[in-house]
Amino acid sequence: MTDLAVRTNTLDLIGKTPLVLLKGPSEAAGCEIWGKCEFANPGASVKDRAALWIINDAEARGELKPGGTVVEGTAGNTGIGIALVANAKGYKTIIVMPDNQSKEKMDTLRALGAELVLVPPTKFADPNHFVHTSRRIAEETEGAVWANQFDNVANRRAHIEGTAPEIWEQMEGRIDGFTCAVGTGGTLAGVGMGLKAFDENVQIALTDPFGAALYNYYANGELKAEGSSVAEGIGQGRITANLEGAPVDTQFRMSDEEGLEWVARLLREEGLCLGLSSGINVAGAVALGKQLGSGKRVATILCDTGFRYLSSLYNAEWLASKQLPVFDWLR
Questions:
Q1: Does residue 16 carry a catalytic annotation?
Q2: Is 203:252 a contact under the CB 8 Å cutoff?
Q3: What is the three-class DSSP state of 164?
Q4: Which of these is catalytic: 16, 23, 36, 47?
Q5: Rounded-to-integer distance, Cα 314 and Cα 268, Å
Q6: What is each CA distance from 66 to 59, 72, 80, 86, 94, in whole angstroms?
Q7: Which of 23, 145, 203, 294 is the most exposed place for a label (fewest CB within 10 A)?
Protein backbone atom coordinates (compact mmCIF):
# COMPACT_ATOMS: atom_id res chain seq x y z
CA MET A 1 0.00 0.00 0.00
CA THR A 2 1.90 3.01 -1.28
CA ASP A 3 -0.21 5.67 0.50
CA LEU A 4 0.82 4.65 4.03
CA ALA A 5 3.10 7.61 4.61
CA VAL A 6 6.02 7.50 7.05
CA ARG A 7 7.48 10.72 8.50
CA THR A 8 10.78 11.17 10.32
CA ASN A 9 9.89 14.67 11.62
CA THR A 10 6.63 15.47 13.43
CA LEU A 11 6.34 18.81 11.61
CA ASP A 12 6.13 16.86 8.35
CA LEU A 13 2.70 15.73 9.56
CA ILE A 14 1.41 19.20 8.63
CA GLY A 15 -0.16 19.25 5.18
CA LYS A 16 -0.52 16.47 2.60
CA THR A 17 -4.07 16.03 3.91
CA PRO A 18 -6.58 13.70 2.22
CA LEU A 19 -9.13 14.91 -0.32
CA VAL A 20 -12.58 13.31 -0.15
CA LEU A 21 -15.57 13.28 -2.50
CA LEU A 22 -18.62 14.60 -0.63
CA LYS A 23 -21.69 12.63 -1.75
CA GLY A 24 -24.53 14.82 -0.48
CA PRO A 25 -23.04 18.11 -1.69
CA SER A 26 -22.18 16.52 -5.05
CA GLU A 27 -25.78 15.37 -5.51
CA ALA A 28 -27.10 18.80 -4.52
CA ALA A 29 -24.75 20.59 -6.92
CA GLY A 30 -25.13 18.18 -9.81
CA CYS A 31 -21.35 17.87 -10.09
CA GLU A 32 -18.39 16.67 -8.01
CA ILE A 33 -17.72 18.50 -4.72
CA TRP A 34 -14.43 17.57 -3.04
CA GLY A 35 -13.36 18.47 0.51
CA LYS A 36 -9.74 18.97 1.58
CA CYS A 37 -9.57 17.34 5.03
CA GLU A 38 -7.65 19.99 6.96
CA PHE A 39 -8.94 18.60 10.25
CA ALA A 40 -6.36 15.82 9.64
CA ASN A 41 -3.50 18.20 10.51
CA PRO A 42 -1.87 17.68 13.97
CA GLY A 43 -3.66 20.75 15.36
CA ALA A 44 -6.91 19.64 13.68
CA SER A 45 -7.22 22.69 11.42
CA VAL A 46 -6.01 24.32 8.21
CA LYS A 47 -4.19 26.93 10.32
CA ASP A 48 -1.32 24.52 11.07
CA ARG A 49 -0.04 25.30 7.58
CA ALA A 50 0.13 29.06 8.16
CA ALA A 51 1.72 28.52 11.58
CA LEU A 52 4.55 26.41 10.13
CA TRP A 53 5.28 28.77 7.24
CA ILE A 54 5.16 31.89 9.47
CA ILE A 55 7.57 30.40 12.04
CA ASN A 56 9.92 29.04 9.37
CA ASP A 57 9.91 32.48 7.71
CA ALA A 58 10.71 34.26 10.99
CA GLU A 59 13.64 31.87 11.52
CA ALA A 60 14.92 32.35 7.96
CA ARG A 61 14.85 36.15 8.39
CA GLY A 62 16.78 35.86 11.66
CA GLU A 63 13.98 37.40 13.73
CA LEU A 64 13.19 34.27 15.74
CA LYS A 65 16.13 32.92 17.70
CA PRO A 66 16.54 29.91 20.04
CA GLY A 67 14.56 30.38 23.26
CA GLY A 68 12.35 33.01 21.61
CA THR A 69 8.62 33.59 21.89
CA VAL A 70 5.93 33.66 19.21
CA VAL A 71 3.01 36.03 19.89
CA GLU A 72 -0.21 36.01 17.90
CA GLY A 73 -3.75 37.34 17.94
CA THR A 74 -6.18 34.68 16.76
CA ALA A 75 -9.69 33.26 16.94
CA GLY A 76 -7.99 30.12 18.22
CA ASN A 77 -6.96 27.71 15.48
CA THR A 78 -3.88 29.64 14.36
CA GLY A 79 -2.85 29.86 18.00
CA ILE A 80 -3.19 26.10 18.37
CA GLY A 81 -1.07 25.56 15.26
CA ILE A 82 1.56 28.04 16.46
CA ALA A 83 1.70 26.42 19.92
CA LEU A 84 2.31 22.98 18.40
CA VAL A 85 4.95 24.18 15.92
CA ALA A 86 6.62 26.32 18.60
CA ASN A 87 6.72 23.35 21.00
CA ALA A 88 8.36 21.20 18.32
CA LYS A 89 10.97 23.91 17.70
CA GLY A 90 11.60 24.92 21.32
CA TYR A 91 9.85 28.30 21.45
CA LYS A 92 7.37 29.79 23.92
CA THR A 93 3.91 30.96 22.80
CA ILE A 94 1.65 33.85 23.85
CA ILE A 95 -1.81 33.86 22.28
CA VAL A 96 -4.30 36.76 22.43
CA MET A 97 -7.88 35.72 21.71
CA PRO A 98 -11.34 37.33 21.87
CA ASP A 99 -13.16 36.01 24.92
CA ASN A 100 -16.24 35.02 22.88
CA GLN A 101 -14.54 32.11 21.12
CA SER A 102 -15.23 28.49 22.00
CA LYS A 103 -14.24 27.17 25.43
CA GLU A 104 -12.64 24.17 23.69
CA LYS A 105 -10.14 26.43 21.91
CA MET A 106 -9.20 28.17 25.16
CA ASP A 107 -8.81 24.87 27.02
CA THR A 108 -6.75 23.44 24.15
CA LEU A 109 -4.35 26.39 24.07
CA ARG A 110 -3.78 26.17 27.82
CA ALA A 111 -3.28 22.41 27.57
CA LEU A 112 -0.63 22.94 24.87
CA GLY A 113 1.34 25.21 27.21
CA ALA A 114 0.54 28.53 25.56
CA GLU A 115 0.09 31.64 27.67
CA LEU A 116 -3.47 32.75 26.88
CA VAL A 117 -4.55 36.41 27.03
CA LEU A 118 -8.31 36.98 26.61
CA VAL A 119 -9.69 40.36 25.48
CA PRO A 120 -13.24 41.59 24.76
CA PRO A 121 -14.28 41.35 21.09
CA THR A 122 -14.15 44.75 19.41
CA LYS A 123 -13.80 46.39 16.00
CA PHE A 124 -10.41 46.37 14.25
CA ALA A 125 -10.22 50.18 14.57
CA ASP A 126 -10.17 49.84 18.38
CA PRO A 127 -6.59 49.78 19.77
CA ASN A 128 -7.72 47.03 22.18
CA HIS A 129 -8.61 44.67 19.29
CA PHE A 130 -6.95 41.27 19.75
CA VAL A 131 -4.63 41.83 16.77
CA HIS A 132 -3.31 45.17 18.07
CA THR A 133 -3.02 43.79 21.61
CA SER A 134 -0.89 40.89 20.36
CA ARG A 135 1.38 43.28 18.43
CA ARG A 136 1.96 45.39 21.57
CA ILE A 137 2.75 42.32 23.67
CA ALA A 138 5.28 41.18 21.04
CA GLU A 139 6.92 44.61 21.03
CA GLU A 140 7.16 44.60 24.83
CA THR A 141 8.44 41.00 25.19
CA GLU A 142 12.17 40.39 24.85
CA GLY A 143 13.06 37.85 22.17
CA ALA A 144 9.49 37.78 20.83
CA VAL A 145 8.21 37.91 17.25
CA TRP A 146 4.70 38.85 16.20
CA ALA A 147 3.25 36.24 13.83
CA ASN A 148 0.89 38.81 12.25
CA GLN A 149 -1.11 36.17 10.36
CA PHE A 150 -3.44 38.71 8.71
CA ASP A 151 -0.73 40.72 6.95
CA ASN A 152 2.23 38.32 6.93
CA VAL A 153 2.22 36.85 3.42
CA ALA A 154 4.15 33.78 4.61
CA ASN A 155 0.58 32.73 5.49
CA ARG A 156 -0.62 32.66 1.88
CA ARG A 157 2.67 31.17 0.70
CA ALA A 158 1.76 28.11 2.77
CA HIS A 159 -1.15 27.62 0.38
CA ILE A 160 0.59 28.69 -2.84
CA GLU A 161 3.43 26.23 -2.14
CA GLY A 162 1.51 23.55 -0.21
CA THR A 163 -2.28 23.37 -0.39
CA ALA A 164 -2.76 24.33 -4.05
CA PRO A 165 -0.21 21.87 -5.51
CA GLU A 166 -1.67 19.13 -3.30
CA ILE A 167 -5.21 19.78 -4.58
CA TRP A 168 -3.95 19.94 -8.19
CA GLU A 169 -2.12 16.63 -7.83
CA GLN A 170 -4.96 14.90 -5.94
CA MET A 171 -7.48 15.97 -8.60
CA GLU A 172 -5.06 14.98 -11.39
CA GLY A 173 -5.24 18.48 -12.83
CA ARG A 174 -8.99 18.17 -13.44
CA ILE A 175 -10.44 20.96 -11.32
CA ASP A 176 -12.90 23.61 -12.46
CA GLY A 177 -13.49 25.61 -9.30
CA PHE A 178 -12.32 26.31 -5.76
CA THR A 179 -14.01 28.26 -3.00
CA CYS A 180 -13.64 29.00 0.71
CA ALA A 181 -14.42 31.69 3.25
CA VAL A 182 -11.92 34.31 4.39
CA GLY A 183 -10.46 34.93 7.82
CA THR A 184 -6.99 36.28 7.06
CA GLY A 185 -7.37 35.68 3.33
CA GLY A 186 -4.35 33.41 3.21
CA THR A 187 -6.19 30.26 2.15
CA LEU A 188 -8.42 31.79 -0.54
CA ALA A 189 -5.67 33.97 -2.04
CA GLY A 190 -2.94 31.35 -1.73
CA VAL A 191 -4.91 28.41 -3.13
CA GLY A 192 -6.36 30.69 -5.79
CA MET A 193 -2.94 31.94 -6.90
CA GLY A 194 -1.50 28.43 -6.76
CA LEU A 195 -4.28 26.86 -8.83
CA LYS A 196 -4.31 29.73 -11.36
CA ALA A 197 -0.57 29.10 -11.90
CA PHE A 198 -1.50 25.59 -13.06
CA ASP A 199 -4.62 26.60 -15.02
CA GLU A 200 -5.86 30.18 -15.41
CA ASN A 201 -9.38 28.86 -16.12
CA VAL A 202 -9.96 27.46 -12.60
CA GLN A 203 -12.76 29.59 -11.13
CA ILE A 204 -11.93 31.01 -7.69
CA ALA A 205 -14.90 32.04 -5.55
CA LEU A 206 -15.17 33.83 -2.22
CA THR A 207 -17.75 32.34 0.14
CA ASP A 208 -18.53 34.99 2.75
CA PRO A 209 -20.59 34.62 5.93
CA PHE A 210 -23.05 37.36 6.82
CA GLY A 211 -21.45 40.07 8.96
CA ALA A 212 -18.36 40.16 6.73
CA ALA A 213 -17.62 42.92 4.20
CA LEU A 214 -15.85 41.09 1.38
CA TYR A 215 -18.91 39.84 -0.51
CA ASN A 216 -19.92 43.43 -1.21
CA TYR A 217 -16.31 44.38 -1.95
CA TYR A 218 -15.91 41.80 -4.71
CA ALA A 219 -19.51 42.20 -5.96
CA ASN A 220 -19.82 46.00 -5.81
CA GLY A 221 -16.38 47.43 -4.98
CA GLU A 222 -17.48 48.54 -1.50
CA LEU A 223 -16.42 47.14 1.88
CA LYS A 224 -19.85 46.84 3.47
CA ALA A 225 -21.03 44.34 6.07
CA GLU A 226 -24.63 43.16 6.40
CA GLY A 227 -26.13 40.86 9.03
CA SER A 228 -24.12 38.71 11.43
CA SER A 229 -22.70 35.22 11.90
CA VAL A 230 -21.63 33.03 14.82
CA ALA A 231 -18.95 31.30 12.69
CA GLU A 232 -15.52 31.52 14.31
CA GLY A 233 -12.33 32.38 12.45
CA ILE A 234 -13.96 33.68 9.25
CA GLY A 235 -15.40 37.04 8.24
CA GLN A 236 -13.26 40.02 7.31
CA GLY A 237 -13.87 43.75 7.08
CA ARG A 238 -10.69 44.88 5.32
CA ILE A 239 -8.31 43.90 2.55
CA THR A 240 -5.40 42.26 4.38
CA ALA A 241 -1.96 41.95 2.83
CA ASN A 242 -2.72 38.27 2.26
CA LEU A 243 -5.83 39.20 0.25
CA GLU A 244 -4.14 41.78 -1.96
CA GLY A 245 -4.22 40.57 -5.55
CA ALA A 246 -6.38 37.53 -4.73
CA PRO A 247 -7.76 36.16 -8.03
CA VAL A 248 -11.46 36.17 -7.09
CA ASP A 249 -13.72 35.43 -10.08
CA THR A 250 -17.07 35.31 -8.30
CA GLN A 251 -18.55 35.52 -4.82
CA PHE A 252 -21.28 33.98 -2.69
CA ARG A 253 -22.73 34.84 0.69
CA MET A 254 -24.02 32.07 2.93
CA SER A 255 -26.09 32.27 6.10
CA ASP A 256 -25.32 30.37 9.29
CA GLU A 257 -28.50 28.35 8.67
CA GLU A 258 -27.23 27.22 5.24
CA GLY A 259 -23.86 26.31 6.73
CA LEU A 260 -25.48 24.46 9.64
CA GLU A 261 -27.62 22.44 7.24
CA TRP A 262 -24.44 21.05 5.67
CA VAL A 263 -22.77 20.56 9.06
CA ALA A 264 -25.78 18.46 10.09
CA ARG A 265 -26.02 16.52 6.83
CA LEU A 266 -22.29 15.76 6.62
CA LEU A 267 -22.35 14.40 10.18
CA ARG A 268 -25.61 12.48 9.87
CA GLU A 269 -25.12 11.13 6.34
CA GLU A 270 -21.34 10.93 5.85
CA GLY A 271 -19.83 10.69 9.33
CA LEU A 272 -17.85 13.94 9.20
CA CYS A 273 -17.92 16.12 12.33
CA LEU A 274 -16.99 19.64 11.23
CA GLY A 275 -17.13 23.27 12.35
CA LEU A 276 -19.46 25.93 10.93
CA SER A 277 -16.80 27.46 8.67
CA SER A 278 -16.60 24.09 6.89
CA GLY A 279 -20.39 24.06 6.50
CA ILE A 280 -20.34 27.55 5.00
CA ASN A 281 -17.51 26.49 2.66
CA VAL A 282 -19.48 23.45 1.50
CA ALA A 283 -22.59 25.60 0.94
CA GLY A 284 -20.44 27.89 -1.22
CA ALA A 285 -18.98 24.94 -3.11
CA VAL A 286 -22.49 23.68 -3.91
CA ALA A 287 -23.44 27.16 -5.17
CA LEU A 288 -20.29 27.32 -7.32
CA GLY A 289 -20.92 23.81 -8.63
CA LYS A 290 -24.46 24.73 -9.66
CA GLN A 291 -23.09 27.80 -11.43
CA LEU A 292 -20.38 25.84 -13.28
CA GLY A 293 -22.73 23.01 -14.29
CA SER A 294 -22.88 19.25 -14.73
CA GLY A 295 -19.64 17.32 -14.98
CA LYS A 296 -17.54 20.01 -13.28
CA ARG A 297 -15.27 19.42 -10.28
CA VAL A 298 -15.11 21.85 -7.34
CA ALA A 299 -12.87 21.72 -4.26
CA THR A 300 -13.23 23.43 -0.89
CA ILE A 301 -11.64 23.41 2.55
CA LEU A 302 -12.94 21.38 5.50
CA CYS A 303 -11.30 23.77 7.95
CA ASP A 304 -11.42 22.09 11.33
CA THR A 305 -13.01 19.46 13.53
CA GLY A 306 -16.43 19.87 15.09
CA PHE A 307 -15.01 18.51 18.35
CA ARG A 308 -13.71 22.06 18.89
CA TYR A 309 -17.31 23.34 19.20
CA LEU A 310 -19.04 20.88 21.51
CA SER A 311 -20.08 23.65 23.91
CA SER A 312 -21.49 25.83 21.13
CA LEU A 313 -22.34 24.42 17.71
CA TYR A 314 -23.22 20.97 19.11
CA ASN A 315 -25.06 22.29 22.18
CA ALA A 316 -28.86 22.59 21.95
CA GLU A 317 -29.13 25.42 24.50
CA TRP A 318 -26.41 27.46 22.79
CA LEU A 319 -27.99 27.04 19.34
CA ALA A 320 -31.40 28.04 20.69
CA SER A 321 -29.90 31.10 22.41
CA LYS A 322 -28.60 32.26 19.01
CA GLN A 323 -32.00 31.62 17.35
CA LEU A 324 -30.39 28.91 15.23
CA PRO A 325 -31.96 25.54 14.33
CA VAL A 326 -31.13 22.75 16.79
CA PHE A 327 -29.94 19.50 15.24
CA ASP A 328 -32.64 16.80 15.43
CA TRP A 329 -30.55 14.45 17.54
CA LEU A 330 -29.79 17.15 20.16
CA ARG A 331 -33.44 17.95 20.91
A1: no
A2: no
A3: helix
A4: 47
A5: 13
A6: 9, 18, 20, 11, 16
A7: 294
